[in-house]
UniProtKB/TrEMBL annotation:
Residues 11-157 form the N-acetyltransferase domain. It is an enzyme of class 2 (transferase). GO terms for cellular component: ribosome. It comes from Saxibacter everestensis. Keywords: Acyltransferase, Cytoplasm, Ribonucleoprotein, Ribosomal protein, Transferase. Belongs to the acetyltransferase family. RimI subfamily. Pfam families: Acetyltransf_1. GO terms for molecular function: protein-N-terminal-alanine acetyltransferase activity. This is Ribosomal protein S18-alanine N-acetyltransferase. Its EC number is 2.3.1.266. NCBIfam families: rimI. The gene is rimI. CDD domains: NAT_SF. PROSITE patterns: GNAT (PS51186).
């Protein structure tokens, strides 16, 4: 899917492109700190096969958020999803996740997996509301901090608009 989509609050969702990457890496550093992605990581993701990345832009083309999907046969993975701190809680994360779910289905996946920090309550709340179930725990996966990772899965994939 490559068309534009409008979120309820006005920003548009478009494919993430190379010219968004400096802003994406800066936002990633603010949101994920020691586990954030560099611009090079984003470049590698955009260049990799079987990936689809989306960007949320405001009216001045400023990057407000992004999300990425990878797929392989029947399984797809949420690579990342992020919304700038000032705009969180406005439904943008949900819109991005719905887009990933739709894209995963379009690529033939029947399940969508993700990893989330056990202490990330907003994200876990969003995923649970979308129908994801926790299927495994990886103890101490996130370092430093020794925070568990929850593996969550949505299956089957169908729209939760
Ligand atoms: C997780 C994230 C992408 C959600 O994006 P968002 O735009 O804030 O999410 P939405 O506005 O669509 O909210 C979805 C739900 O989460 C809830 N939520 C959002 N922020 C919250 C917060 N700080 N605390 C509790 N719940 C929160 C909303 O209330 C909403 O639930 P509701 O429908 O029951 O009201 C965003 O918080 C984020 O970028 N966090 C930092 C990066 C991150 O942790 N990414 C996920 C890695 S796995």
């Amino acid at each position: 899917m490559s068309g534009e989509a409008t979120t309820p609050d006005g920003p548009i969702i478009v494919p993430l492109r190379w010219w968004h990457l400096p802003e994406a890496a800066a936002l990633d550093a603010r949101l994920f700190r020691e586990t954030s992605w560099t611009q090079e990581t984003f470049w590698a993701e955009l260049a990799a096969p079987q990936r689809e990345y989306s960007a949320v832009l405001d009216g001045n083309d400023r990057l407000l958020g992004y999300a990425g999907l990878a797929w392989s046969a029947a399984e797809a993975d949420v690579q990342t999803v992020a919304v700038s701190t000032e705009l969180q809680g406005n439904g943008i994360g949900r819109q991005l996740m719905l887009r990933l779910i739709e894209q995963a289905g379009n690529h033939g996946a029947t399940s969508l997996l993700l990893e989330v920090r056990a202490d990330n309550e907003p994200a876990k709340h969003l995923y649970t509301k979308l129908g994801f179930d926790r299927i495994a725990v990886r103890r101490g996966y996130y370092q430093p901090g020794n925070i568990d990772a929850h593996i969550m899965r949505l299956r089957p994939l169908h729209s939760r608009n």
